[in-house]
Amino acid sequence: MKKYTVGKAATGLARFLLDTYGEEVKNRGITLSYDARNNAEFFARVTADVLSAFVIQVFLHAHVRPAIEVQIGDELTEDNIERLDWNWK
Q1: What residues does each domain of the chain span?
Q2: Are 46 and 7 in contact (CB under 8 A)?
Q3: Of 2, 16, 64, 88, which is the most buried if we count CB atoms within 10 A?
Q4: Using one digit for the tens of pLDDT, what is the confidence trace for 26-68?
């Protein structure tokens, strides 16, 4: 897998989210996590960068999460997320 493939998929996700949820997704944001697989953190950051370019607020977990927890999600706290908030002007 390459970052360009992930970037294209993230672009499609961003467009889908904006078409489906509009301003709500920008206001609420999304949570991204990653598991322990090779390059998972790198690809999560690529995805976060692309979504941020579409002015979608991204909350990225700061540490590896077990796959089941990534799927289900958990409570967000300042201790376990890194807020990626880009101001595109």
Answers
A1: 3-84
A2: yes
A3: 64
A4: 988 888 888 888 999 999 999 999 999 999 999 888 888 776 6
**Percent of the chain having pLDDT more than 90?**
46
CA 87/CA 8 separation, integer angstroms:
22
Pairing, β 58-61 against β 81-84:
antiparallel
Q: Measure CA 87 to chain center.
A: 16
Please give the Cα distance from 31 to 69 (Å, whole number): 12
**Residues linked to residue 32 through DSSP beta bridges, in sequence order:** 60
Amino acid at 35: D
Q: Helix or strand or coil: residue 84?
A: strand
Token pair listed for 25:
């997704």
Q: Which two tokens stand for residue 36?
A: 């322990």
To the nearest 5 percent, what fractions of the chain are helix, strand and coil?
A: 50, 10, 35
